[in-house]
Design brief:
The complex is a heterodimer of chains A (437) and B (220). Chain A has 437 residues and is mostly helical. Chain A is built from 17 helices and six strands. The chains are: A mainly alpha (437), B alpha+beta (220).
Chain lengths: 437, 220
C-alpha cells in the first residue's frame, strides 16, 4: 500500500519533509497545540450547529409559545432556531461545547503568545510567525464576536448594536462602513445572513489559511529549543518526531481537552438564550463582552466624553476608546519583534529572568489589561460601595497607570534579587571548589 | 557584435508585462470596490422607520402592554418606555418601531422638579417629559439607575439626569438625550414636534436638519 502510493505520489518525501518534524518535549509547547485542537473541535461542532441554524432575522411564529391567532408571538427566525437547537437531543450541549471551546481557544492562544514573548521565541528568524500569530488572535476575536451575535437573543441584539455603533464611530466613513458591513441601517433586514456569512465562511477561511501558514513556517523554521536541548546536544534539533511519537501525545491531548470541555459544558451552561429572550427594547443590566474584550469595554467605561470636529469628521470618545486604543495596543504587540536588535538567529528559548526589561514590560502590559478589565466592572464596583460615581473614573485611571508601573519596577527588583542569589550561590560553590583543591 | 544590438523602438518585454499586470490589478481592484457598494443596501424611509413626528400618539413599548395608549396615570418618576404611533398612507396605525432608535423614555415628576435645561414649554404642565431613550454614546437603551440618581446606560455606564434636560452627569456620552416636545390631547400624549435637538445616531446638526426635511417631504 505504502509502496503503491509512494510510486505514484512520492509520499516518502512528504514523510521526510513533514512527518519527521521534531517536537521539543516541554509542557509549555502544548499551548499552541491546544489552540489548534480547539479550532478543530470548533469547526466540527460549528458544522453540526450550522445544519440546524436558520440564518435570518425575519419574524416567525414561536412554535414553543405561539400566542394567539390575533396576536401571534413573533420572534426572529435565528432566535427561534436557537431555541429549536436547544430542544434537540444533545443540541444544547453542542452550543455549550462550541461556546466554551471558543473561550478555551482564545485563552490558549493568549497564553501561547505569552510563552513566545517571555522566552524570546519571536526573535529573528521567527518575526513573520509572530505577526501571523497576531492576525490569528485578532481574527479569532472577530470570529468569536460574530459568533455570539448569531443566536440573536436580546444579549446578541444589544451586542451587535454596540458593534454597529463602534463601526459607525469611524470619522468620515463610519456610517457607510457600518451599513456596508451590517447590511444597511441597523437593524437591517439582512443583518443575520450577513453575520452568518462572516462567521461560517469568511472568518474561518481566513483563520484556516493563517493557521496553515503558521504551521508551515513553524515546520520550516523549527521550534525554538528548550534550554535542556543546549546541554543535551548543542546546536542540534532535539525532540520527538511528529510521526509516530508525537502523534499519540497529540491525540491524547486533543481527546482529553475535548473531554474536559464537554464535562465543563455539561455542568456550566453558557449563554442561555431563553433567559435573555428575543431582541427587545428592555436593555440588559450590566451587559459585558467576553473576557478577552473586557479591557476595551473598561477603557470605554472610564474614558471621559469629548468630541473633536476635524475636516467635517467627528472624532468621539467611542472611536478613540474602541478603535484607536485597541489599535495602539495591537500596533505595540505587532512591533515587539522589531524592538529586538539582535541579528543572530535565535535557537534556544531564553530564561525570562535573563531579560528583565522585556519580562517587566510584559508583566506591566498584562497588569494594565487586567486593571482595564476590572474597570469594565465599574457599575458593579459603584453599586457594591467600593467606589462612588464621583471618584470611580479618577481612581480607575490612577490604577490603570499605577499598577503597571508598580509591577514593572517590582519585576525588575525581583529579577535583581534572583540574580544576586544566583551569583552568591555561584561564588559559594566556587569557593567550595577551591577548598577541595 | 554591437552592430547587431537591437535598438528596441518601443518598450521592453519586462516593462510591457509590468504595465499590463498593473493595469489588470488596478481594474480588478476598482471592480471589487464597486462590488463592495452592493454590500450596502438602499435605505427606504417607510412609516415604521420614520422618527416621531407631530401628531404621533405615544404607546407603551414594554412587551406585555405593547401598543396600548399611554395614560397620564401610567407615568411616574420611574421610566416608562414608549413608541410613537403614527399613520401610514392608508390611515392605519403604525407603531414606528422599525427604527429601534425611536424608543422614548417618559417621566412624570411632581411640579417644580423639572428644571432648566429641560425645555419646559415642550413638557406637559412642567410635569411630564419625553426623551429619546437611546444613549448618545453607543446607542444602547438607557434605564433607570439602580442608585436612584437619574438614568444609567447599561452598556458603558453613561449617566443622565432626566430632571435637568437629561444632561450627562457621568460616563462617556457626548450629548444629553434629545428631548421630544409633547402635549396632552384628551387623555393621549401626543408628539408636538421633532426632537428638540439631534437624537442618536445623528452626528451633525446639518444631517439632522436634512433628515427632518426628507421626513416632512415624505409624509406630506
Amino acid at each position: 500500500m505504502n509502496q503503491w502510493l509512494d510510486d505514484r505520489l512520492h509520499i516518502s518525501r512528504l514523510n521526510d519533509k513533514f512527518l519527521r518534524k521534531a517536537f521539543p518535549v516541554h509542557h509549555s509547547f502544548f499551548l499552541g497545540e491546544i489552540t489548534l485542537f480547539s479550532l478543530i473541535v470548533l469547526i466540527l461542532t460549528g458544522i453540526l450547529l450550522a445544519l440546524s441554524y436558520e440564518p435570518s432575522n425575519s419574524l416567525v411564529v414561536n412554535t414553543f409559545d405561539p400566542g394567539t391567532v390575533t396576536k401571534p408571538n413573533l420572534v426572529p427566525a435565528a432566535y427561534h432556531s436557537a431555541l429549536k437547537i436547544n430542544a434537540m437531543p444533545f443540541g444544547d450541549m453542542l452550543r455549550r461545547v462550541h461556546h466554551w471551546m471558543a473561550n478555551i481557544m482564545v485563552a490558549a492562544a493568549v497564553i501561547h503568545m505569552m510563552r513566545i514573548y517571555f522566552t524570546g521565541a519571536f526573535k529573528k528568524p521567527r518575526e513573520i510567525n509572530w505577526w501571523i500569530g497576531m492576525l490569528l488572535l485578532i481574527f479569532s476575536a472577530l470570529t468569536a464576536v460574530t459568533g455570539y451575535i448569531l443566536p440573536y437573543d436580546n444579549y446578541a441584539y444589544n451586542t451587535v448594536k454596540v458593534v454597529y455603533a463602534i463601526t459607525g464611530s469611524i470619522p468620515w466613513v463610519g456610517e457607510w462602513v457600518a451599513q456596508a458591513a451590517f447590511a444597511g441601517k441597523f437593524p437591517g433586514a439582512g443583518i443575520i445572513p450577513r453575520i452568518y456569512g462572516y462567521h461560517i465562511m469568511l472568518l474561518p477561511g481566513i483563520l484556516l489559511a493563517l493557521t496553515g501558514a503558521h504551521m508551515l513556517l513553524m515546520i520550516k523554521q523549527k521550534h525554538t529549543q528548550p534550554q535542556y536541548a543546549k546541554r543535551v546536544a548543542y546546536k542540534k534539533i532535539v525532540g520527538v518526531p511528529f510521526m509516530t511519537q508525537q502523534t499519540p501525545i497529540m491525540l491524547v491531548l486533543a481527546l482529553l481537552l475535548t473531554g474536559l470541555v464537554m464535562l465543563f459544558a455539561a455542568f456550566i451552561p453558557v449563554h442561555p438564550v431563553e433567559f435573555f429572550g428575543p431582541p427587545s427594547t428592555t436593555p440588559i443590566n450590566n451587559i459585558k463582552p467576553d473576557w478577552y474584550l473586557l479591557w476595551v469595554f473598561g477603557a470605554l467605561a472610564i474614558i471621559p466624553s469629548f468630541e473633536w470636529h476635524l475636516f467635517g469628521g467627528l472624532i468621539g470618545a467611542e472611536f478613540v476608546g474602541a478603535l484607536v486604543l485597541p489599535g495602539i495596543v495591537m500596533a505595540l504587540m505587532f512591533a515587539v519583534p522589531m524592538l529586538d536588535r539582535t541579528t543572530e538567529h535565535q535557537y534556544y528559548a531564553e530564561n525570562p529572568t535573563n531579560h528583565p526589561v522585556r519580562l517587566a514590560a510584559g508583566v506591566a502590559f498584562f497588569a494594565m489589561m487586567i486593571v482595564l478589565s476590572v474597570a469594565g466592572y465599574k457599575p458593579e464596583l459603584i453599586s457594591s460601595g467600593l467606589l462612588t460615581t464621583g471618584n470611580a473614573n479618577t481612581i480607575l485611571w490612577i490604577l490603570t497607570l499605577l499598577v503597571p508601573a508598580v509591577s514593572y519596577f517590582a519585576v525588575i527588583g525581583i529579577v535583581r534579587g534572583i540574580r544576586a542569589l544566583r551569583e552568591a550561590d555561584e561564588r559559594e560553590s566556587l569557593a567550595h571548589a577551591h577548598a577541595d583543591d | 557584435m554591437t552592430r547587431y544590438k537591437k535598438q528596441d523602438p518601443e518598450i521592453t518585454r519586462r516593462k510591457f508585462i509590468n504595465v499590463a499586470m498593473g493595469t489588470t490589478a488596478a481594474v480588478g481592484t476598482v471592480s471589487l470596490v464597486s462590488a463592495l457598494g452592493t454590500a450596502n443596501p438602499v435605505f427606504r424611509l417607510t412609516p415604521d422607520k420614520a422618527p416621531p413626528v407631530k401628531g404621533d400618539v405615544l404607546v407603551h413599548a414594554s412587551e406585555s402592554k405593547e401598543g396600548q395608549i399611554i395614560k397620564v396615570s401610567d407615568l411616574s418618576d420611574q421610566l416608562v418606555r414608549a413608541w410613537p404611533m403614527g399613520k401610514d398612507k392608508d390611515g392605519n396605525n403604525v407603531i414606528r418601531k422599525g427604527e429601534p432608535n425611536n424608543i422614548l423614555a417618559l417621566y412624570r415628576f411632581p411640579k417644580g422638579q423639572l428644571v432648566e435645561p429641560t425645555k419646559l414649554d415642550a413638557t406637559v404642565n412642567g410635569e411630564i417629559v419625553a426623551y429619546s431613550d437611546i444613549c448618545t454614546h453607543a446607542g444602547c437603551s438607557v434605564a433607570d439607575s439602580d442608585q436612584g440618581d437619574g438614568m444609567k446606560c447599561p452598556c458603558h455606564s453613561g449617566q443622565y439626569d432626566p430632571k435637568r434636560g437629561c444632561k450627562v452627569i457621568g460616563g462617556p456620552p457626548p450629548r444629553p438625550l434629545a428631548q421630544l416636545p409633547i402635549k396632552l390631547e384628551g387623555d393621549q400624549l401626543v408628539v408636538a414636534d421633532f426632537f428638540a435637538s439631534m437624537p442618536y445616531p445623528f452626528l451633525s446638526e446639518t444631517e439632522w436638519e436634512k433628515f427632518k426635511k426628507e421626513v416632512e417631504e415624505q409624509l406630506a
